[in-house]
TrEMBL record:
Lineage summary: Bacteria, Candidatus Kaiseribacteriota
Keywords: Membrane, Transmembrane, Transmembrane helix
A Pfam family of this chain: Peptidase_S41
SMART domains, per database record: TSPc
Xref: Gene3D superfamilies: 2-enoyl-CoA Hydratase, Chain A, domain 1 (3.90.226.10), DnaJ domain (1.10.287.110)
Sequence intervals crossing the membrane: 5-23
J domain span: 155-217
Source species of the chain: Candidatus Kaiserbacteria bacterium RIFCSPHIGHO2_12_FULL_53_13
This protein's GO CC annotations: outer membrane-bounded periplasmic space
Swiss-Prot/TrEMBL GO biological process terms: proteolysis; signal transduction
Name of this protein: J domain-containing protein
GO terms for MF: endopeptidase activity; serine-type peptidase activity
Length: 433
């Protein structure tokens, strides 16, 4: 099995693409909309968002509930008493009328800002509060780069003082020279610069990670090392489209190392990322087309299945431990909960953060200026191993390292002496990069 077979780049962030919720038919009288008021682009802008929320938000809402949210949001944006702003009818049509009446009292930039602020307030107050929002085109680009672990501003070659065309030997020589210089200094700045140079060398000295960086500035998400006694340690810093290929490559590269029979997957500080990767990642352990986890969307439990064959090289690892902390979140929590549910791994650490939402982007077709906007909307809620929402609860460890006697509990869950020793040493120390 060749590791390139596992290079799969799938983005969770959707681009909308389905039918739009307002219509425009060409007639002799011009464009026609759901309501006459929506001939005004500002009213149409907010109402297009209203329809997207109603159809795609994770929580099933009634017209009356959403109409009242927009009423309160308009009152907040316009700085008026909400008691003085009444809906003619508690539905979509009533929302259109109060928006049209408010916008008719303003014009120009003030009108545009009122439409934007009304929508921003409405999105912010969707539960969980602060998780949904309105993004500009630039912010959508930043979000996608973050998801793919791309930092457009980074220059790892510059960190080492070499050109992009530098050979492997030149990269190594530059690092050794910089290391010698910076190690001689005790200043905090020199220490930070040495850490960055070490990281740059780590990325550029590996052919695979260098190729990904050279192509699209994609930085590594998986860092591996073999610990004494027979444990493979994998620090997964983030979940991105390249994580699956990196993880598989680490396992395959270790396949020729003798006596490895246990594994640590360190997810501490992992903020998650692309949820689709979870179905592929779990497939490495479970095999293809196996139930992996559920998503909850508008009163419906949606079973997710694995999307890739099992990786045979994982069979040698008889025991697997996942290390978590309070900053393990999002898709990293989904993976943790699934590995725990199927007893593929035991969890050591502290409860995860409890960030159990899946956000998608939905572009707005209506334009109210030169900028284009998209809704960032919570589309689904993730569930943990006991079918309770991860949101606000997190995933509980089997062995909680905040317990003073946690080291003694390790032997209850693990037989491997190497794994117990590794966890005793590493579970409360910073992740190994």
């Amino acid at each position: 099995m060749h590791k390139k077979a596992f290079i799969i780049a799938i983005l969770l962030i959707a681009l909308g693409g389905g039918g739009y919720w307002w219509y425009a038919n060409q007639t002799g009288a011009g464009e026609r909309y759901k309501t006459p008021e929506e001939a005004d682009a500002y009213v149409r802008f907010d109402m297009e968002a209203y329809d997207i929320i109603l159809a795609n938000f994770w929580k099933k809402s009634s017209d009356a509930e959403l109409a009242d949210l927009f009423r309160l949001s308009l009152a907040k944006a316009a700085n008026i008493n909400p008691d003085a702003l009444a809906l003619p009818t508690a539905d979509r049509e009533g929302t259109v009328k109060i928006l049209a009446a408010a916008f008719a009292k303003t014009e120009g930039e003030q009108k545009k800002q009122l439409a934007l602020d009304t929508l921003i307030v409405a999105l912010y107050n969707l539960p969980p509060v602060g998780r949904s929002g309105l993004l500009s085109s630039g912010q959508v680009t930043d979000l996608r780069n973050e998801e793919k672990n791309i930092d457009p501003a980074s220059n790892l070659y510059q960190d080492l003082g070499v050109q992009k065309s530098a050979s492997a030997d030149e990269v190594n020589d530059a690092f050794e020279e910089k290391k010698a210089t910076l190690s001689a200094s005790t200043s905090p700045q020199a220490k930070a610069a040495l850490e960055q140079a070490t990281y740059a060398h780590q990325v550029l000295a590996d052919a695979d990670s260098k190729a990904r960086y050279d192509e699209a500035k994609v930085e590594p998400t998986v860092f591996d090392r073999v610990l004494r006694g027979g444990t493979l340690y994998l620090y997964v810093e983030k979940i991105s489209p390249t994580t699956l290929a990196e993880f598989a490559a680490s396992v395959l590269n270790a396949s020729t190392t003798p006596a490895l029979d246990s594994m640590i997957i360190d997810l501490r500080g992992n903020i998650g990322g692309t949820l689709d990767v979870a179905q592929y990642f779990l497939g490495l352990f479970l095999g293809a087309n196996q139930y992996s986890f559920d998503l909850f969307h508008q009163d419906d439990y949606q079973a997710q299945r694995t999307a890739i064959n099992a990786l045979p090289e994982l069979k040698r690892y008889r025991e697997v431990a996942v290390i978590t902390d309070g900053m393990t979140q999002s898709s990293a929590e989904v993976i943790t909960a699934a590995l725990k549910r199927f007893r593929l791994a035991r969890v050591v650490g502290t409860p995860t953060r409890g960030w159990g939402t899946v956000e998608n982007t939905f572009p707005l077709k209506t334009s109210i200026g030169t900028e284009t906007y998209s809704l960032l909307l919570v589309h689904s809620i993730t569930l943990r191993d006991d079918n309770q929402p991860i949101e606000g609860r997190g995933v509980d460890p089997d062995v909680n390292t905040s317990d003073p006697k946690w080291k003694k509990e390790l032997s209850t869950y693990f037989r491997s002496r190497s794994l117990v020793d590794a966890l005793s040493q590493e579970a409360t120390q910073p992740p190994l990069r």
